[in-house]
Amino acid sequence: MFFRNLTLFRFSPAVADDLHRLDQVLHDHTLRPVGGLEMFTRGFVPPVERGDEAPLTHSVAFFTLFTVGGQDKMLPASVVNGELQRKVQKITEEEGRKVGGRERKRIKEDLFNELLPRAFVQESRLSGYVDTRSGWLVLDTASRKAAENALTQLREALGSFPAVPLAPEEGPRVLLTDWLANGTLPAGLQLGDECELRDPASSTGAIIRARRQEMDSEEIKEHLRNGKQVFQLGLVFDDRISFVLGEDLVVRKLKFLDVVLDAMDDSHADATAEADASLALMTLELERLLGRLAEWFVLPRPENA
């Protein structure tokens, strides 16, 4: 249940009012098995398994959890090209002629259509939740592409869902660099034990990745004095959550610390009660963290839909 990464979007109060119908509309966009000649399918699956009639959302207070499922055909190009090479070689040997480019392309397309129905199917799950009180869409992924795909599924189901990427008024890279260089972290925030430093003037410049290292060490300070800036920084919030924050404001390696996990009650009556407790604990902890991120980087909530 606990998320490991956070890609964030924001939406207005008017959009939040429309999300009461989320469970209803998702039923028309459930995941179906991938067809014989399809490469992939996407759709919604129950975020909490409760048998055949499990709902497609799970809500606690202002937070509604959902899960986007996927089925992808795995047909490596090397497999198709290997079959193509054998087919071309057979024609050459049996018919004594050279296979031209146009014929080669046609043979490859035929092989692809022949092999696709027999390809291995890989399943995936991406969970997220909407916070209608504060206007956050929170997706458990560090991949921008995966996040955009999940957002597309929500927009198709709802007809419209104008959630927008974060638009910080404070430059994240500048602020992260200042925190590391000068130790001027906001109250409740501490440095973790990893960072990624880069030369911002060059896309091909040196990249320094430090893990399990004291962030106030002379080695780190020397890199900063030489002009490198922070692109990712490990942080600890209120001794309750550790994470790595990127200059793209994606939260990676999210981990709830023992003081949070110890608050979990193991004596739940069933899977629904356990899901309620986990979702409530996670979302309330993240609500505090996201609220502070909004303060630190000035992340305004859209006022209009």
From TrEMBL:
InterPro entries: RdgC. It is found in: Cytoplasm, Nucleoid. It holds the Pfam family RdgC. Keywords: Cytoplasm, DNA recombination. It comes from the Bacteria. Belongs to the RdgC family. HAMAP family: RdgC (MF_00194). PANTHER family: RECOMBINATION-ASSOCIATED PROTEIN RDGC (PTHR38103:SF1). May be involved in recombination. This is Recombination-associated protein RdgC. It comes from Dyella ginsengisoli. The lineage of its organism: Bacteria, Pseudomonadati, Pseudomonadota, Gammaproteobacteria, Lysobacterales.
